[in-house]
UniProtKB/TrEMBL annotation:
Name of protein: Aromatic amino acid transaminase
Cofactor: pyridoxal 5'-phosphate
InterPro entries: Aminotransferase_I/II_large, Class-I_PLP-dep_aminotransf, PyrdxlP-dep_Trfase, PyrdxlP-dep_Trfase_major
Entry keywords, A to Z: Aminotransferase, Pyridoxal phosphate, Transferase
Gene3D superfamilies reported in the protein's UniProt record: Type I PLP-dependent aspartate aminotransferase-like (Major domain)
Molecular function per GO: pyridoxal phosphate binding; transaminase activity
Keyword Transferase: yes
Protein's UniProt keywords contain Transferase: yes
UniProt similarity note: Belongs to the class-I pyridoxal-phosphate-dependent aminotransferase family.
One GO process term, biological-process aspect: alpha-amino acid metabolic process
Record organism: Papiliotrema laurentii (Cryptococcus laurentii)
Length: 440
C-alpha cells in the first residue's frame, strides 16, 4: 500500500515495521523490574555480584586536547572514574545503556541533527554493528525482501543471510544509493511478490563505494521510502569524517514526514574515539527500540559499561563542541591521507584502473575494467596475491556475490612507502593480467 505525499500523513505507529515475533517480545522477569529500582526503594531484585570483591579500584584514561594544533603530540588530560562512576563502570547495568550517557547522547542528537526530543530515544549497543543486526532481526522474517544498496558494507551480509532475508540490490552512483534506481525497483516490483519494508544504506563515505549522499539525494530517497512505507536503516559510522557535516536521513526525514519514524539511525564511536570500545548507538522511535532491548537482554545483557563510562567521561569533559573538534581533526587526518594516497595511486594506476575520489570514509573503490578485469576475486588469487598484494575483491560487497571488476583499497593505515610499493605491485599485477588476456 502506498500513501500520497499530498495527503496530510496520518500518524502511524512505528511498530508497523516489526515482525510479529518482535511485536510480541518481552523483557525477562528480572529486567522488567529494573525500572522500579529507584533511590527510595529497597531492592532485593538483581543477582548482581558485590563490587567490593572486584580487584579494580580505579580506571583512568589519558586523552588529547582536540583544540591543540597537533592533538596527537600536544598536552594530554587524565580523566579518572571514581566512586559512583567507577561503580557504574564495573557493575552490571541497564539493558539500553548507562542512563547518564544516553541522556547526554540524546542531547547531542538534538543539536547535531536538529531534531527536538519527543518521538525518538537513544539506546547503546556493542558497536553499531550489534544494533544493526538486532534491528534487522526485529523487522525481517525469513523470506522477506530487504532493499540493500549495492555495493554494501559486507559486515551486514552474514546477518541478512542468517535471517534468511531476500536481498534486492539497489545500485549506488557517485552520490550513494541511486534514487532513480530505487524508484524504478519500487515502481516495477513483481506483482504478487511481498513488498520490501526495510532499506539498508551507509550514506556517508560508503563502505566500500566511498560515495556520500548529499541533502537532495537523501530527500529523494526519503520521499520514496515514505511513499512506499519503507523503514530506512541509516548506518552512518563515517558521518563525522566529512570536512563539513552532511545532513543525515534522521535530520531530513521530518521535511518529508513531519512526525518522523521512517528512519533508524546508527552511530558509532569506532572511527572517532576507539574501535576497541565496541560502542555504538541507535536513534529511533521507542517502539522500534524495545525489541532491540529485548534482544540485548537475551544476548549480551548490555554494551560494556566500562566503555560507556569512559566515553561518558570524555564527552562530558569535551562537550559537543570538543567532540566535534576531535571528529573534525579525524576527518582532516583522513582527508590528508586520502590526498597523498590517491596521488600515488594515480601515478601507478592511471590507464589501468579508475575510481571516484571519496568525500569521506577510508576507502577507494577501484574499478579495474580498464585492464579488462571482470572478476577481481579470481584476479586477486591468480595475480594480486602472487604479486604480493592483497585487497578485498568487489564481489564480497554484493549480496549476490556476482563477479565484480572492483577492489576495495583502504587508505587508513598504510605508510607512504608501503602505499607506493603496494600500488606498484597492483599495477604490475594488472599489466600481467592484461598481457595474459591479450596473448590468450
Ligand atoms: C558501514 C559500516 N557499518 C558498521 C560498521 C561497524 O561499526 P561498529 O564498530 O560501530 O560496530 C563498520 C565498520 O567498519 C562499517 O564500515
Amino acid at each position: 500500500m502506498t500513501i500520497s505525499l499530498e495527503d496530510p500523513t496520518p500518524k502511524r505507529c512505528p511498530s508497523r515495521f516489526l515482525t510479529p515475533a518482535a511485536k510480541a517480545s518481552q523483557l525477562d522477569g528480572i529486567r522488567e523490574f529494573y525500572q522500579y529500582e529507584t533511590d527510595d526503594v529497597i531492592s532485593l531484585l538483581a543477582g548482581r555480584p558485590n563490587i567490593s570483591t572486584f580487584p579494580i579500584k580505579g580506571i583512568s584514561v589519558e586523552i588529547t586536547d582536540p583544540h591543540h594544533p597537533e592533538p596527537s603530540s600536544g598536552p594530554t588530560t587524565t580523566l579518572n572514574l571514581k566512586d559512583d562512576e567507577l561503580r557504574t563502570a564495573i557493575q552490571y547495568g541497564a539493558t539500553n545503556g548507562v542512563p547518564a550517557l544516553i541522556k547526554l547522547l540524546e542531547g547531542f542528537q538534538e543539536i547535531i541533527h536538529k531534531r527536538p526530543k519527543g518521538s525518538w530515544n537513544v539506546a547503546m549497543g556493542s558497536g553499531c554493528q550489534d544494533l544493526i543486526y538486532k534491528a534487522l532481526a526485529s523487522t525481517v522474517q525469513p523470506g522477506d525482501p530487504v532493499l540493500c544498496e549495492a555495493p554494501l558494507y559486507a559486515g551486514v551480509l552474514p546477518g541478512l543471510q542468517n535471517l534468511q532475508a531476500v536481498c534486492f540490490e539497489v545500485e549506488v552512483d557517485e552520490y550513494g544509493l541511486s534514487a532513480k534506481r530505487l524508484a524504478d525497483v519500487l515502481a516495477n516490483w513483481p506483482e504478487g511478490q511481498k513488498r520490501p519494508r526495510v532499506l539498508y544504506t551507509n550514506p556517508i563515505g560508503g563502505n566500500p563505494s566511498g560515495t556520500t549522499a548529499v541533502r537532495e539525494r537523501k530527500l529523494e530517497v526519503l520521499k520514496l521510502c515514505v511513499q512506499y512505507d519503507i523503514l530506512i536503516l541509516e548506518d552512518d559510522p563515517y558521518y563525522f569524517l566529512t570536512p563539513d557535516l552532511v545532513p543525515s536521513y534522521f535530520e531530513l526525514e521530518t521535511e518529508v514526514i513531519p512526525q518522523g519514524g521512517q528512519v533508524m539511525r546508527f552511530d558509532s564511536f569506532s572511527k572517532v574515539l576507539a574501535g576497541g570500545f565496541r560502542l555504538g548507538f541507535v536513534t529511533a522511535p521507542p517502539e522500534l527500540l524495545y525489541p532491540i532491548e529485548v534482544l540485548t537482554a537475551a544476548t549480551n545483557l548490555h554494551a560494556a559499561a566500562v566503555s560507556q563510562m569512559i566515553i561518558y567521561k570524555i564527552l562530558t569533559h569535551w562537550g559537543v563542541e570538543g567532540f566535534l573538534a576531535n571528529a573534525r581533526n579525524v576527518a582532516l587526518f583522513y582527508a590528508g591521507r586520502k590526498g597523498w594516497f590517491e596521488e600515488i595511486a594515480h601515478r601507478h594506476l592511471d590507464g589501468l584502473a579508475r575510481w571516484t575520489s571519496p568525500v569521506a570514509g577510508l576507502f577507494l573503490w577501484v574499478d579495474c575494467s580498464e585492464s579488462g578485469v571482470k572478476n577481481t576475486s579470481t584476479f586477486m588469487y591468480q595475480y594480486g596475491i602472487p604479486h604480493g598484494i592483497v585487497a578485498c575483491p568487489g564481489a564480497s560487497f554484493y549480496p549476490s556475490k556476482a563477479p565484480s571488476p572492483h577492489i576495495r583499497v583502504s587508505f587508513s593505515e598504510l605508510p607512504r612507502d608501503k602505499a607506493e610499493e603496494g600500488f606498484k605491485r597492483l599495477a604490475e599485477a594488472l599489466r600481467h593480467y592484461k598481457s595474459d588476456q591479450n596473448n590468450a
